């Protein structure tokens, strides 16, 4: 394990609980940490325990009146507005405290890197990328990703690249920095014509001095590992090489999985593992090794999220888990006690992660690749039709 990698975790993260049958069930976090522990990924690792982010930090990206609404919502569950009390964002006791703790987790990860105690850090409870300046959205109350990026900009970082691999468009983070040329946001997501929130078109590329600093790659439903990776490598490395970020912040939602109940892409746990390794390599080669990884979406609570995010934690720690590694019997027994689903037996789905570069052959994602490259590459001095760029 790298001595300069940090894991942020507290069981108190489980208090971010939208209740009932809500798909964002915190059991996925608990099962991930249990699996990482039982596989030995966390052996000798002392997780960093965060505190709630103070109001002034949350207000980096949210207006004060919104914080007031979040704090008062449990006492006024039907009259606070701001996107609270909806089916997606039901009100729950301790909502402000739980949401501020998630922000505190991502801030702690950012601080560890900024102050030189770590080159990489991971907070699987983070990644609440839909929350907007004055409202909750898409299961997200406070936008910990944007809060952490804003903090980094005030603490020694002039160029931050944010890469969002969640199946849903990273709309809240894009909105927070849409006119800020210091932040490059790249989101690969299911096509907005086929999935909420209906944004994330190639023509959304930033404004003012930040034109070209918002990048969107909308992918067709059913996109498998090989096609997703083809699109990623056709767009992301060239832009990062040109932008020269000082740190990568990555939202690692796993609702791209073929089994996810809320979306329609076709990735596997093997694809997720390959994505994390690609992000690690890009951090090394384009951002001086600085990498802050957070979680995000993912609603395959028992079969998918724990395995995928255990791979994420392992990748951050340089303790890569082999795909054919069997799942520990104790973990399987515990998970089986919580669900009637048949559980996988190893850390792989047997997915094929080989891909053909977009300059060779043809693939159904190539239209999206070309639309994105033609929208933003010229704004970075790159030729969208030149395979060398």
Automatic annotation (TrEMBL):
Residue ranges constituting the Histone deacetylase domain according to the UniProt record = 22-315
Report the record's Gene Ontology biological process terms: acetoin catabolic process; epigenetic regulation of gene expression
Q: Which residues form the signal peptide?
A: none
Q: In which pathway does it act?
A: Ketone degradation; acetoin degradation
Q: Which domain of life does the protein's organism represent?
A: Bacteria
UniProt KW keywords: Acetoin catabolism
A GO molecular-function annotation: histone deacetylase activity
What the record says about family reads: Belongs to the histone deacetylase family.
Q: What is this protein called?
A: Acetoin utilization protein AcuC
Name its species. Pseudonocardia cypriaca
Q: What is the lineage of its organism?
A: Bacteria, Bacillati, Actinomycetota, Actinomycetes, Pseudonocardiales
